[in-house]
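Recap from last week: sequence in, structure out.
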Amino acid sequence: MERIGTKIINSVILWGFVAVSWAGPGGECRDIPEPTERLACYDSRDKPTTQPLEEDASPKVMDQARNSSEHGSTKSNGESLGQRASSAVQNALKVALPRRNTVEAKAPTKPVEYTISKVLRRYGGKVEYHTADGREFRKLGTSASDFAVGDTVVAKLGVFSAVFLINQRGKRIKVKPLN
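Predicted structure tokens:
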């Protein structure tokens, strides 16, 4: 008596060969030398069997392929290829994506500076920094260093939308904006 594992392996190999032989296309499409006709042949084989095959579909496909190859991506039936693609997809981007290796020419902007006007120590050891223009930040970091009244700080975004305040001496404290 053979082992059950050997029987399973043999049956899987047998079904693999059967599946490959069934999935392999017949030689009729492969032997067509003209690319557009060969494509039309493969397309007609992929159509569902519930719909009747159109006999005049291949000349239409060939004419469209010839028109697009002669004119590049010019208009067909009054629409360009890009317009047809964007109308088929909803919520598509309206501006082109930036290229990966291109450098955008942006004018260097000056960072927004805040001047600390109040340092409040709340119940539970919470420290809040109020700026001259009305912004409020709560200290999240556990370091003993603090900003002093009159320090000029800039806000910088970190990973996961963390906000850091950095003063003129380079001291950096993680904060939470309150307003």
